[in-house]
Amino acid sequence: MVLACLALGAALTASVDLEALRTQPAALRTGWELKLPVNRWIEMPVTLGPAPPFRWSHSGSVYDQSRDSLILFGADEHLVSFDNAIYELRLRDLRWIGHQPPSPPYAMRTDAKGRRVAGLQQLQPWPMHIYDAMIYDLSADSVMVFSGAKHSFVPAPGAQTDPAWTYALENRQWRMAPELQDGLPNFFAAGAVYDPLRNTVIAYSSTAVATPFVRLGGEDELPRIGVWELGPDRREWQLATSETHHWGWFNAEFDSRHGVMLVFGRPLGAGDVWVYKPGSVPGQRGEWQRRSPGGDLCPAGGGHYFPAAYDSSRGMTLVLPPDVAGWRNITCLYDYGRDRWLRIEGADLPPLEINYTLVYSPKLDVFVLVSGSFFESEPTRVWALRLGR
What is the secondary structure of 60-79 as a DSSP string? Predict the structure, then answer.
């Protein structure tokens, strides 16, 4: 019951001329998405602007609705990456835009309150693992980061704590906000989503649960576990529930059509999904539900961390789980309303490693994925997928 046999179809349209796109100026690139074949991933030639040298495995991404852009941020730490710069991929003309250079490692320090900070002329966060703990706040035109440099081995004087960070896209300035007034540290290996129905940020962290991974750095100092919510005033986190069901390293998406947070990743049976239905007001306890969808076998190979993005046009979520046996990542849609998986045949990708850098553009009706790996010596690559109707 693969997607090729369903209403979305798999008929190919006129293919995009990749070589022409590679050499065209920005003004002539508009409309490239309409020439994509449907239900196939196409590697796009992004030759304009300074691309990030690598897509760091633990970096995160968000979709900037105001600019129709993918915003990329995050590093691998472990003395491997000191990149704390924001990179923007403008989708209408496939152009990379660098917002500021990474600050030098010697600028990594702690302030008078023991908070990890970096930057010279401008304040910047420490390089850090982001995972899925980053959202775009349309009401403030800002990126909000809810993670910390827990795997950094860079020494700094005094106690070290990780603030939450907000990046204003209009003036390209970082600030430490919202204040963590309860004294607990920021999240780590978490997932964050924006709930437009309540104008609320939901963050879910569960690294305190038994895990098969080696715990590093400050992970044992993380009491901010469970589902937390940040209301419309963006001032204070409220604990909605301490109930958790994961090891961390998952991907969370908010299904705005049905008003639920979907969490993808183990420990689950193949294809199972945890669903969180939030309360009516921020901080009110919600309800967890474990689902075992019907339909196609997705995710075929399981996995802890793989890309996911919600398609607001179709009310479904696209995920790219690993198929270990086939040494590839497959493409599937989760239909919450029908509780079914739909696999898109012919839309396989090379192995993606750890990846949280997939977004959906409702303006273009296209999914955009950033791949690449420092450890595999693979440069930054950009892929696009247009689903059939």
Answer: EEEEETTTTEEEEE---BTT
Spell out the domain ranges in the chain.
3-385
Q: How many CA atoms lie within 13 A of 108 on its CB side?
A: 22
d(CA 139, CA 219): 32
The pTM of this model reads: 0.91
State the Cα–Cα distance between residues 294 and 220, nearest whole angstrom.
37
Measured CA to CA, the distance from residue 318 to residue 311 in angstroms comes to 7
User: Per residue in 38-63, pLDDT tens?
Assistant: 999 999 999 889 888 888 888 999 99
Structure tokens at 227: 């589902």
Just give the CATH number of 3-385. 2.120.10.80
Q: How far is CA 343 from CA 2, 35, 77, 265, 327, in A?
A: 5, 23, 35, 17, 17
> What pLDDT does residue 241 have?
98
The answer to whether the CB of 299 falls within 8 A of the CB of 330 is yes
Residue 62: which residues within 8 A CB-CB, separation 6 or more? Answer: 70, 71, 134, 135, 136, 143, 359
Residue 299: asked if its preceding bond is cis (omega within 30°), the reply is: yes
SS (H, E, C) 166-234: EEECCCCEEEECCCCCCCCCCCCCCEEEEECCCCEEEEEECCCCCCCCCCCCCHHHCCCCEEEEECCCC
Exposure on the CB side of residue 266, measured as CA atoms within 13 A: 16
